[in-house]
Amino acid sequence: MLDELQSGAHGVGGGSIATHVERDDRAEALELASRGLVSWVARQAGIARQSDVWMAREALGQCYRVALRPLQPEDLEYLSDWAEDPFIERMVGSEFLNAYKHVYDKDPSFYDAILTDPTQVVLVIEANRGWTKPVGLARLFNIHLLEGYCFLEVMLTDPKAIRRGFGVEAGKLISYYGVDVLGLRRIEAKVYEYNRLSANSLRRNGFQPEGILRRAGYQDGRYWDVLVFGILKDEIDEVRRKDKLYLPLADSEGDALDAP
To answer: What string of DSSP letters covers 42-75?
Structure first.
């Protein structure tokens, strides 16, 4: 969640390629990333033709306050701004944004690299009704298909989107996608100790605290503990069975953005 804009972001760091994934599995992951999302969204919205899936935003909006869509080339402009935001850096410490800024030097080739990376799925968070631009990102990364696990990062990048439950709903949607489409059995997330809102959001989505990485994060000239959370497939299924739309967030603490 550190990665999750820890301002409502989960997913401290992370994002390297899973080198042990075999060729067939990499091909499968690419197929899932490029086609699986469309068919999954179509099922969720009750759309018969996959070609009509992007007409479904209104239908999805009747159920959730946010919609997730694939990253598009024009979104690089938003990434450029988010990568320069000191608050996002402090709350999330996203390796995804850092790679775009420092490794690719904000080059457009970053988009193709993400599109063809079988170890991550990057989705843009859009809020329904009255929002003219994306409010953040939701990402599954370090995807290990053979072992069935990955890491989660959800970041809300618009301060006005915080404390509205957007991050919670985005986290649920992408977790459901991970289970339904990728066949994952476990999702893990990390947050800085001071990002209480992100930690609270993970708990609201059924994530269980699993440990503390002592002094594993560095921000503001000092080291911080990193909190580790995890959730299993059966726990995700249980959350879905009990899911109440527009679930209000518990009273938040700390100076974090809204997290999934």
So the answer is: HHHHT-S-GGGGGG-HHHHHTT-SEEEEE--GGG
Using alpha carbons, list the distances in angstroms from residue 35 to 21, 28, 48, 140, 185.
Answer: 20, 10, 15, 16, 20
From the CB of residue 256, how many other CB atoms can be counted at a distance below 10 Å? 32
For the chain, the domain total comes to: 1
Average pLDDT over residues 238-242: 89
Q: What is the CATH number of the domain that holds 114?
A: 3.40.630.30
Instruction: Output 98 or 255, whichever has higher pLDDT.
Output: 98
Cβ neighbours, 10 Å, residue 130: 5
First to last CA, the chain: 8
- Which ranges in the chain belong to alpha helices (H)? 23-31, 37-45, 57-61, 76-83, 86-91, 95-98, 109-115, 166-180, 196-204, 233-242
Contact 110, 76 (CB under 8 A): yes
Q: In which domain, by residue range, is 20 found?
A: 9-242
- For residue 74, is pLDDT > 90? yes
* CA distances to 46, 71, 158, 220, 225 from 138, in Å: 23, 10, 14, 25, 23
Rg, the chain, Cα only: 17
Q: Is residue 260 part of a domain?
A: no
Whether 36 maps to a domain, the answer reads yes
| Of residues 1 and 129, more confidently modeled | 129
CA separation, residue 142 to residues 21, 95, 135 (Å): 11, 12, 23
